[in-house]
Amino acid sequence: MTAPTEAPRPAAVDTVERRGDKTFSRLAVGAGTAILIALAAVAIFLVAQSLPAIVAPAGSFRGTEGDFWQYVAPLAFGTVWAAALALIMAVPIAVGIALFISHYAPRKLAQPLGYIIDLLAAVPSVVYGLWGITVLAPATVPLYEWLAENAGWFPLFAGPASGTGRTVLTVAIVLAVMVLPIITALTREVFVQTPTLNQEAAYALGATWWEMVRMAVFPYARSGIISASMLGLGRALGETMAVAMVLSPSAIISFAVIQSENPSTIAANIALNFPESAGIQVNALIATGLVLFVITLIVNSLARYIVNRHERSLESR
């Protein structure tokens, strides 16, 4: 007996599929190329408009008698400092919430809680700014005074404490609340995708719930946690309105987090000064935007390097 042969496919079907593949491939290549062109156009615009400010003589910029780098240094420091504080506060809480939703909470509670976390990401930044300046800042004044009196020996909590609560620590708390749903949502999805066999193998070896999470879930989700944290950091670095509304800025570089004089951020400085700027001041603000662009690019590149290195280490095991 001869094996049944498969009926040949009609040539028209193959032609339609090849045409669809070619169309999809061209659309995908076009979309990727458009992103690169847009990114290059933004970079060219920033560099071209920033050159007059970068080469301008000292004393040309509002708020400082130095050159451009002395003008942008406090802003770059404040941007990174506020975002780093926000990330330090947000990541442990976000990972804990994601772990609770994915592995501990009952389904009837986990699903509504996940929806609520996702809803927080849709709240406009101006609402967070209003909450920060009207509710959070006054509520933190007694805490800042207590920290200045009892922990003032520590440089971060050096006094005098702000009487309004509009400090870089308040801004960091607002930013942490803003990036919390982003980190939580992405981390939760990574936790859910942990292979069931890995978790059951840990239980079979006698591991407790926490040991299973530590040995099976966290190693698998490490790159995802890093990626989610970097996305949250990118949001914190570029946040404008909430920082501009809450922070009481000064052109200083200081690690103290409860004083009334605080370093501003690049995005907030642009939002506050751009409407009344002209001439070289506009070029200076665009040049600070270029610095923020470079900082964001460095952060994302570093995150990509860490994720790729972790994935290679997992493949080599």
From TrEMBL:
SUPFAM superfamilies: MetI-like (SSF161098). Part of the binding-protein-dependent transport system for phosphate; probably responsible for the translocation of the substrate across the membrane. Belongs to the binding-protein-dependent transport system permease family. CysTW subfamily. GO terms for molecular function: phosphate transmembrane transporter activity. This is Phosphate transport system permease protein. One of its GO terms (cellular component) is plasma membrane. It is found in: Cell membrane. NCBIfam families: phosphate_pstC (TIGR02138). GO terms for biological process: phosphate ion transport. The chain crosses the membrane at residues 27-48, 68-101, 113-137, 167-186, 236-258, 278-307. It is a multi-pass membrane protein. It comes from Microcella putealis. It holds the Pfam family BPD_transp_1. Its main location: membrane. Keywords: Cell membrane, Membrane, Phosphate transport, Transmembrane, Transmembrane helix, Transport. The keyword Transport applies. Residues 76-303 form the ABC transmembrane type-1 domain.
